[in-house]
TrEMBL record:
InterPro entries: ATP_PRibTrfase_cat, ATP_PRibTrfase_CS, ATP_PRibTrfase_HisG, ATP_PRibTrfase_HisG_short
Keyword Zinc-finger: no
Subunit structure: Heteromultimer composed of HisG and HisZ subunits.
Family: Belongs to the ATP phosphoribosyltransferase family. Short subfamily.
Function: Catalyzes the condensation of ATP and 5-phosphoribose 1-diphosphate to form N'-(5'-phosphoribosyl)-ATP (PR-ATP). Has a crucial role in the pathway because the rate of histidine biosynthesis seems to be controlled primarily by regulation of HisG enzymatic activity.
PANTHER family: ATP PHOSPHORIBOSYLTRANSFERASE, ATP PHOSPHORIBOSYLTRANSFERASE ATP-PRTASE
Compartments, as annotated in UniProt: Cytoplasm
Domain ATP phosphoribosyltransferase catalytic: 52-207
Pathway per the UniProt entry: Amino-acid biosynthesis; L-histidine biosynthesis; L-histidine from 5-phospho-alpha-D-ribose 1-diphosphate: step 1/9
Protein name, entry field: ATP phosphoribosyltransferase
Keywords: Amino-acid biosynthesis, ATP-binding, Cytoplasm, Glycosyltransferase, Histidine biosynthesis, Nucleotide-binding, Transferase
Catalytic activity: 1-(5-phospho-beta-D-ribosyl)-ATP + diphosphate = 5-phospho-alpha-D-ribose 1-diphosphate + ATP
Domain notes: Lacks the C-terminal regulatory region which is replaced by HisZ.
Amino acid sequence: MTITIALSKGRIFEETMPLLNAAGITALEDPESSRKLILTTNRADVRLIIVRASDVPTYVQYGAADLGVAGKDVLEEHGGTGLYQPLDMNIARCRMMVAVRDDFDYESAVRQGARLRVATKYVQTARAHFAAKGVHVDLIKLYGSMELAPLVGLSDAIVDLVSSGNTLKANHLKAVEHIADISSRLIVNQAALKLKHDVIQPMLDAFKLAIRK
Ligand code: ATP
Ligand code: MG
């Protein structure tokens, strides 16, 4: 019985490795230097697959991967159907924020009931946030570099992830609202959890002990 774990390259892969190691799993290849999308581990029954961050829930939902690690941002957009989310891994921490140009008076625009143009990769999250506030928005879907949109007049605001705030600052933007704290979660295919319980449960227990609070 093989266990397949879906991870994305970059910070999620790097920050998940210590937790996998704590469960006795070591990657034998590095996705940054290897072009392989299926990586072997020290355990013959465990393999890692490398997918786009936003595709991790899809692989797990359909059972192509048994486990995965995905940001709460990605899970909110996906909807979480068919996924069991037993653990907050407390890695890849950042915040979902609304940001505008530093010369834009967001408070009065909202107070005056202006219709805001908001560019974001996180359309579901943004829609829910502004609907709850009763702010009318036109959402513009982007796939990256959201910071550019207000600078060239594509939008009044963006909804994006912020950690240090340096990217905002470098582009003369300011954060004006905090939508949610984000971290990455372990996700498990619900059928796999039942069928492969004897292998998966000890992994969950080991992750739980190794997660930094
Ligand atoms: P892709 O590059 O494939 O479009 P992505 O940009 O979402 O995807 P990453 O930048 O590796 O991929 O981000 C993966 C996850 O890490 C995100 O879903 C989010 O949960 C988290 N994350 C994103 N940006 C930051 C950040 N600046 N600091 C900490 N965590 C972050
Ligand atoms: Mg990125």
